[in-house]
Please model this.
Amino acid sequence: MQRIYDTRAGKKVDLVLREPGKVGMYVCGVTVYDLCHVGHARTLVAFDVIVRHLRARGLEVRLVRNITDVDDKIIRKGNAEGRPAAEVAECYADAMSTDMAALGIAAPDVEPRATQHIADMIEVIRRLEARDLAYPAEGDVYYSVAGFPSYGALSGQSIDDLQAGARIEVGEHKKSPLDFALWKRAKPGEPAWESPWGPGRPGWHIECSAMSHRYLGDSFDIHGGGSDLIFPHHENEIAQSEGAFGSFAHYWMHSGMVNFGGEKMSKSLGNVVTIRRVAETHDLEALRLLLISVHYRSPANFTIARDGAGLAVYPDLDEAEARLDYFYRTLERLDAFLAPLAPPPAAPPPSDLATNVGAAMDDDFNSAAAIGHLYDAFVLANKLLDDPKAMPKPERQKALAAIARDARAVGATLGIMLRPPAEFLLSRRDRLCVRRTIDRAVVEARIIDRTAARKAKEFARADEIRAELKASGVELMDTPTGTAWRVAG
Ligand SMILES: [Zn+2]
Model:
């Protein structure tokens, strides 16, 4: 049975689906006014892993993830750059899709955009009006929170508590401070659509109520998003959708934030870690591994430091990339061991790895524990590979075959280790060479010198070359097909 932490219940519960075998799921997506950064990656990777696991368990998941393409920030950016807001949104929506694909995040089944669902939003607002949950004021339309007594239940706050901290801003025409805009009257220089209340544009929250209803119906199984959206966004979505349709999401899941250690990340410091910035120096799969190495509800650490030259460096990411290197190196060793076996070992039963990871993921998608089990299995694999006498031959072959097979299945669920090991390892070696100013051509030339020395039985000289390379961070591996090399992580 799949257990999930439901934010509204405040505890782990069994996932009971409305329709056996099928999961309807809505995740709040990105407001497209700039390049996506590590914080966006956190939320979308978390839900990607959740969906991957549900699918690996044989469930048919319909994932809807919206794109907010009309919003104050988009309009401001358009004005600053002297181009229409729609063009800004289009440009950054494209960039987001590219970046998310590069992070191995599967595209959602439906990716609706706010501006393409204005009529749906107007329809929801009309329903709310008919139920006395919405009122027009000077061309705006507001939600009347007083008419929805359970407001605050998701974030565990009462209307009275919330009321105490709320204010009516200048220019707002609402009756009560907690009321929020469903529709905003058109202002000069802003995009606007016709509506029963005059020209204007939707408030932010209404789009998710309208689009989840359009693609998932009156009620669906899971609603997800970053924990920063619990209040007010998700609270408002509930008020709108339950107010208009009587029901909404059965379970609420929220992913934790990124904890930026070291320097604080901010636009004014110019150190915003966009996904593209990470890709300049690191493998994006390492970022993915870093983010899933903690439980999706816990904060993920991402330290920004400076090197001697004052350039931004990311120690947590370096560490994750080194761990990924270990994973791929182990897979490469396993492949090299298993490939020549004829006949291949008979299909071994599932290893402890498969069982343990399955149990961890069934328990509220504990990817941190899953990564721990993967690491343990690879430590065991390396031990077995190093020591042919560790087990009788057939058992050893079977155990290694089971780990290789199950590690790849775990990788598919977590969205890691999906490339041929050599591809990752060579690209990492190239990156490390750049980082440490190691000249590949010089290394290759020294390896040729060493091979010649060995042929001439000048072993002292061969050892000298090996030691010299080692001092510069280059490790040599003598294999039956020649000498390979890597840069020590
Ligand atoms: Zn939303």
